[in-house]
Amino acid sequence: MAPIPTPPAEPQDSPEGYVGLDAPNAERLARRRGWSTVRSLPPGTVITMEYRVGRLNFEVRDGRVARAWKG
Predict the structure, then answer these.
(1) What is the DSSP letter of 25?
(2) Burial of 49 (0-12, 13-18, 19+ CB in 10 A)
(3) Across 35-58, average pLDDT
């Protein structure tokens, strides 16, 4: 049987630190800090709730990050 792969470690970074930043700069910063996927979403967007290691989600309102969370 093949071994179960070990997912890569997530960046040691707090999503709350992105709240209030303008979206393009927040995305660039997140990528520099090691997030493999950065997803910006308008408020109320319907999304699936699967957890993806290395993904950072932003809820963007009026061009600024209003909420940020992992997965």
Answers:
(1) H
(2) exposed
(3) 92
